[in-house]
Design a protein that fits this description.
The protein has 114 residues and is mainly β. It is built from one helix and ten strands. The protein has a single domain, classed as Transthyretin/hydroxyisourate hydrolase domain (Immunoglobulin-like, Sandwich).
């Protein structure tokens, strides 16, 4: 099953980051970006499918922008990073790609999950 998903965990609170806005963009060349979708994480901090309905994953560059400032304000915290952008390159569109974000007010990490 091909596709693209994410999961955001607020490590400072020890819980999923629900209600966090995420913007998905695509670029064939990293010069020009097209917005594909805007999604909000659910109560479990997940967006099970980031691609718009009817859109297939294709090879190219993708950028996920996590609007962390708005999220931290909603939980009564001030963060250092107003947003986090993660750019990655998909070469084999037949696979599923999971891009988790571990988040705190003063740091973050990401990796290719399963």
């Amino acid at each position: 099953m091909s596709g693209l998903s994410t999961h955001v965990l607020d490590t400072s609170r020890g819980r999923p980051a629900g209600g966090l806005l995420i913007v998905l963009e695509f670029s064939p060349d990293r010069l020009h970006w097209d917005v594909l979708e805007q999604s909000e994480t659910n109560g479990d901090g997940r967006v099970p499918s980031l691609l718009p309905t009817g859109t297939e994953l294709k090879a190219g560059f993708y950028r996920l922008t996590f609007e962390t400032e708005q999220y931290f304000e909603s939980v009564g915290t001030t963060g250092f990073y107003p947003y986090v952008s993660v750019v990655f390159h998909i070469q084999d569109a037949s696979q599923h790609y999971h891009v988790p974000l571990l988040l705190s007010p003063f740091g973050y990490s990401t990796y290719r999950g399963s």
